[in-house]
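no rush on this but wanted to send it before i forget. theres a chain ive been looking at and ive put its sequence and its fold in C-alpha cell form underneath. i want to understand how the C-alpha cells follow from the sequence so walk me through it. thanks a lot i owe you, the record is right below:
>
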Amino acid sequence: MWPTTRLTTIRRHSTIDLIDMDLTEEHRIRCAAHIIQIIVKAVIYGRGLSKFELSLSQAAPQEQFEMFRQQGVVGRLHNFVNAVLASHKRREAFMTIQKDLNDDDPLWAFSTLNLVQNGGVRWHSVYRMLLRCLELKDSINLFIRKRGGSTVDSYLPGSSALSEPISEDEWDEAQHLADFLREFYEMTKRIEGGGAQGSLWMTIVNLQYLYNELNKMKDILKDEGSTHYLKNGVLYGIEKLLTYWEKIVIEPEVSYYAVATILHPRLRLLWFKDHWRRHTIWHKKAEASMEIVFQRYVDAEEIDEEEQLAEPTRRKAPGGLYDRTLTVDTSLLTGVRSYKRARKATELAQYYDAIGPDIEDAEQVGEESLLYGDPLTWWQKVGRETYPTLYKIALDFLSIPATSCECERAFSGGRRTVTFERNLLSGSTIEALQLQKDWLKKGLMRSNLKELVDYINSRKKIPTVTP
C-alpha cells in the first residue's frame, strides 16, 4: 500500500478550480493510520524498525525465530503462537488443554478459542495476539508444562518456544503493553471510518493525543528504572512522532492537515495556540498555511468576477460625437472590487475571533452537537452565510479522508466483484456494480430483493429447545 492519498477538491460544491496546479509530492497527504502504525511499531520493537522488518523478510524460519526471541515478551508469544499453529496435532492438543481447564464449568466445557497469529502487516495483529494470549494465559502455561518438552521437533524451526516457560513478570509486561496499546487501537479505528470520523482534521488532533500519551508514559517509566522494557520503546516512539510532525507541518509549503484542523469550528486557530504554546514555530506555520490557502481562493474568486466584468459595458449614447464623450466604461469601476476585497480579507480574522460567540450561540439554542459532531454540518447550517469563502474551503478540505482505508476497502470489494471468471467486465460495468453495492448497503437505493430477505427473516420462527 502506498501510504498517501491525493489532495482533491469537490468541484460540485465549489465554484473555483484549485486543481489547475500540478499535483506533485508536495500535494500528497500521508495516511494517518500509516503514521500511527510506524510510531506504535517503534514503541513495540524499538529503534531500527525498517531494518528489522527488512531482515525478517530475508531471513530463514529459524533465523526469524531467533530474531523474535530478542524482542521480549512480544517475541516470545509470537514464537509460541506460530509453533502451535504450525502443527495440526499441536492445535488439537492446545484445544484439549482448554477443555480440561474448563471441566468444572458446564457453560465453557466445550468452548475453545483459537490463538491469534501476528500477521506482521499492521501492529493491530500484535495487539490482538496479546489480548488472546492473555485470555488463554492458563492454557498456555499448562500446555508448556505438560507438553512442551515432548513436542520439540528439530525439523520444525521455532518449536523450542514450546518448552520455554513464560514467567509471571513477562505476563505482567504483556498485560501492561496491551493496556498501553488499547488507546491507540481505538484511535486508529476512530479515524479509519467514512464521513466525519475519517476526515483530515482528525490527523493532527489524534497525533497530539498520541504525543501526550507517550510523554505521560515516559514520565511514569522514570520511576520504573532504566531496565523497564517499554522505556526505550516510548522514547523511540516520541522520536518518530517528532519526525512526522516535521513532515506534515513544517516541511511542506502548505500544511493541509493544519488547514483542515483550523476549519473545524470548535478548534480554529485557537487550538494550535493552546496546545502548541511551547512550539511557536508550529502554530505560526499552521496560521501561515491557512492564509496561503485562503488567499488562493480569494484570488480565484476575483478572477471569476473579472471575467464577468470583462464583457463590454460601454453603451452607445444617442446623439453625436459630443454626446458619446459623456459616456463612461463601468468595467473600470474599482470601488465595488475594493470593498469586496476588503470584506474577504477580514473574513478569516472574523472567523478566528468569533469562536467564543459561535460556541455561546450554539449553547443557547441547544445545538452544541453542531460544534462537536461533523464540522461539515456546522458549515452547512451556520458558516455558509457568515463565511462564504471559508465555506468553499471547508467543503474541499473537510472532504479529504485522513486514511486510505476506505480506498483499500473499495479495492477489496472490487476484487470480490471482478473475479478471475469475470475479468472481461468493462470499467463502466464495474463502476455500476460497485456503486450499487455501496448504495444498497447504506440504504440509498430501494431493493425488492432486500425487502424480500428482510420479510423472510422476520417470518422465521426460532425453534424452542425443550429440555
Summary: The beta strands are 4-6, 28-30. The mean pLDDT is 78. Residues 124 and 185 are 7 Å apart (CA to CA).
